[in-house]
Amino acid sequence: MRPQFNFFKNIDKITVLLFFFLVIIGWVNVYAAEINENHRSIFDFSQSYGKQFVWIITAILLITIIFTIDMKFFPAFAYIIFGGVMLLLVGVLLFGTTVNASKSWFHIGPVAIQPAEFAKYATALALARVIYDNKSKSRTFKDLLKPLMIIAIPTLLIFLQNDTGTTLVFAAFFIVLYREGFVPGWIIILGIFGVFLFVLTLLINEFVIIGVLTGLSLIIAFFLRKKTSSVKQLLALMLLINAYVYVVDYAYDEILQPHQKMRIAVLIDESVDQRGAGYNLHQSKIAIGSGGLTGKGFLQGTQTKFSFVPEQGTDFIFCTVGEEWGFVGSVVLIGLFLTLLIRIILLAERQRSVFSRVFGYSLASIIFFHFMVNIGMTIGLVPVIGIPLPMISYGGSSLWAFSVFLFTFLKLDSRRLEFL
Predict the structure, then answer these.
(1) pLDDT tens figures, 229-259
(2) Contact (CB, 8 A) for 22 and 340
(3) Backbone dihedral region of 205: left (phi > 0), alpha (psi from -120 to 50 degrees) or beta?
(4) Helix axes 396-414, 354-378, angle to 10 degrees
(5) Domain ranges of the chain
(6) How far is 345 from 265, CA to CA, in rounded Å?
(7) Which end of the chain is more exposed for a tag (fewer CB within 10 A), N or C?
(8) What CA–CA distance (Å, rounded) separates 362 from 177?
(9) How far is CA 78 from CA 81, 129, 157, 184, 352, in A?
(10) CA torsion 221→222→225→227, rounded to 10°?
């Protein structure tokens, strides 16, 4: 007789504890950010912090459902789940509600659902399945086409919703493709260089950059003149980089919308429009900086208490942590996220199934992108693009999606000794 498998015994308890630590920290800080003097109870369901408690309870119910599902369900129904969520993304374009200029929400009575949050989970499932199905040891461009299509479909649909932040999140899946050998390391390096050159082009006149790059290329070509093939490759690369610089300048002037230009301008020079587009970032830095080493204390943040920072319970929740808990509290929160990421990667590496490993790396990549960009935009390292801090920011769709995402992976990990 086959022994009964105990999921609770085999689940990675460290990851579970990290998840609930972050969720509780998030709930407490949503309360601190949104507290109303007339509604001081953290369980007041008319306020965002009371609603967040409901989201947490319902997330636990979703986690319980994940516990009861057979692990074979996830690879078997990966494409169906992906297709269903893609239909929701199409549906929200046709019948959704516009919030903050993005047509990304379904409103069902008092509940608002954002399908784009669940698209990350569905894409991870489909990507894991398509890579699992690829039995070839080679990693040719033809092999790359299906994974790229899986990533491109939700990216395009969310882009059409005018949700730039969530659209950019899907770039995180390229980390997964790199881990699985579909994308060489030089592509990642080239992408980082492209971002650097993009910012440099906005700071310096494009003709100066082109002139400097051309001059350097000609000097290097002179020393490599005996190696004809190397010289040709160098000159071809120079032409491509110069073309990229010109395209960046043209795109910034002619293609980007005014509010997108302003976000970039604020990132480059924080003194730009501090009463308008630069207001959020300026107030965010004041809030975080005023916390000092140990913070002002729980519910004692003046920037937080008087709502100087807009969206402080959602996209700018890190400001509350910085102001009330200070540098120490911020480091603790960052440490928890880094520990969670490292733990997920370690779990992903010990998987015997390609499907589970790819899904685990997808989870780590998405959390990493959210974590880096959300905190980066509150301290002025990246443009303000409006994405939540996982498990911390207020919001049911985000909490539900990350809860299902994480515990699906933990379910797969608990059965790692069984082949799919």
Answers:
(1) 666 776 777 787 778 777 777 777 766 677 6
(2) yes
(3) beta
(4) 150
(5) 7-14+26-183+256-414, 184-255
(6) 36
(7) N
(8) 9
(9) 5, 7, 19, 26, 19
(10) -40
How many residues are present in the chain? 420
* Tokens 């008092």 -> residue: 110
Identify the CA nearest to 90 among candidates 74, 107, 103, 109: 103
Assigned token pair, 208: 């100066």
pLDDT digits over 377-409, tens only? 888 787 778 889 999 999 889 999 999 999 999
